[in-house]
Structures are given as structure tokens and as C-alpha cells.
Amino acid sequence: MGQDFDGQTAVVTGSSSGIGAAIARRFAEAGADVVTNSRSAERAEEVAAEIREAGGSAVGVGADVTDHDAVAALADAAIEEFGSLDVMINNAGMTIVEDAVDYTPEQWRQVIDVDLTGTFFGAQAAGQRMIEQGTGGAVVNVSSLLGTKGLAGRSPYCAAKSGVDNLTRTLAVEWADHDVRVNGLAPGYVRTEITDQSMESAGYTVEDIEARTPLGRFARPEEMAECALFLARPDTFVTGEILTADGGWSANAWGPDH
């Protein structure tokens, strides 16, 4: 286990699988005490148990990020268990693939509530406690390549992630006097179970994504974890930034090379 985050506590929402689980494991490797999270306390604890078995320090806490009080309780649990809250990774997210004309109000609200409101609740809970502690901290909001790009069938997701980007900038300015740094991480296509499900719903293939990405492959969750670790490091002068990690997708004006 490393020492970069010794003595610090990191909360990672939506960390029962995929990018979130990789981030939680990486912070534990770097020496942090980690609070894993899922709507299911059992699933959150499964990843926490894996971290402990590997020699790290972690507990799992169930909380729905769309529930303000539950997110506040998640932040308090970190402090009660480990003594502080120093890093908050707002990773929980979801999408529904549907034509804009067919989205129901319930579907729209579900995606916005998880991806945007849930991110705000997590950032707010962390910011309040970091300011009270008086020792600063780091908030990393997981956005998406689609925060700056449009994609058919993802209207609420794209809207929510765009909102996350500007929320991140606003909080960074507002909390700078308290040494609370707020940054965003915008992954491109990462090979996870959720990505596979959305590709199937949208009707495109692994080969389609690989052809469109200059690096010619999907990202690994572990690569996103390294980005999150960098953004949360206390020895950087970075705040209010959105780090895009998309394998060159945004830089590629031509599109698929057929």
C-alpha cells in the first residue's frame, strides 16, 4: 500500500462496480481509508471487504445519492469511522437510452436526479464537512465525454453531465478560500457492464467505438482511477478543471476511419 493518502479518508459513491470500484481500490492502495457506497449496503460492503482482504482499510455504506439525508449520513459515517472526510469522489451515475420525443417525465427525472442532483448532494455534503474541519480537501465529480458532446438517445444524460461540468467550476470558485479543490473527470468509453448494456440498447458495437477512438480501444476502469487519484492529490494547484480522458475522441475531427 502506498502513502500518498495516508491519514486521509476518501468516499466513493457508486463504487460497487466499474469505475467506482476501481477508484476505491486505487485510493486504498495509496493509503486512504475508503468508504465504498452503493444503494445496496451489501454490494458496497463486498468491495470494502475485497479492499480489506488486500491489506487496505475500508467500510461499505449503503445510500441512495438522490436522497439528501442519506448522502449527509454517508459523509457523517466516514467521519465517525475514520475521523475526517478529505476526498469525495462523486461517481454514481446512470443512463437510459431513448429518443428524446419518447422520454417519460419519470425517466428524465431519474437520470437528472442521479447524475446531476446526486452529484450536487455529494459535493455539498463533503464541502460542508471539509469547511468545518478547516483542513481543506478534494472533491472529484465524475462527468463524461458527453458533457460537451451530443449523442442521440442520451438527452438527459448529456444535459446532466454538462451541468456537472459547470457545477464543478462554480464550486471550485466558491470553496477556494477554504482550500477545498473541486475538479471533474470526464471519461470517454470505458469497458464496464453499464457501457455494454447501453451499447446494446443503442445498437452500436465494440468495433464502432474502437474505430472512432484514436487510441483504438476502450479505457480500463483502472486508468480512470489514476486520473481521479491525480485530481485528488493535495500537492497540485488544480481546481475548477475538467480532465477529459477519452483516448483522443474529442480531438478526432474526422470520426471513424473506414
Give the SSE layout.
Elements: E1 9-12, H1 18-29, E2 33-38, H2 41-53, E3 57-62, H3 68-82, E4 87-90, H4 105-133, E5 137-142, H5 155-175, E6 180-187, H6 193-202, H7 206-212, H8 221-232, E7 242-245
Parallel strand pairs: 1-2, 1-4, 2-3, 4-5, 5-6, 6-7
Helix pairs in contact: 1-8, 3-4, 4-5
Shape: globular
Count helical runs: 8
CATH uppermost class: Alpha Beta
Main sheet attributes: strand count, strand direction, barrel closure:
7 strands, parallel
Descriptive notes:
The chain is an alpha/beta fold. It has a single domain, classed as NAD(P)-binding Rossmann-like Domain (Rossmann fold, 3-Layer(aba) Sandwich), CATH 3.40.50.720. The protein contains 8 helices and 7 strands. A 7-stranded parallel sheet has the order 3-2-1-4-5-6-7, sandwiched between helices. α1 links the parallel β1 and β2. The radius of gyration is 18 Å and the shape is globular. The termini are far apart. The mean pLDDT is 94.
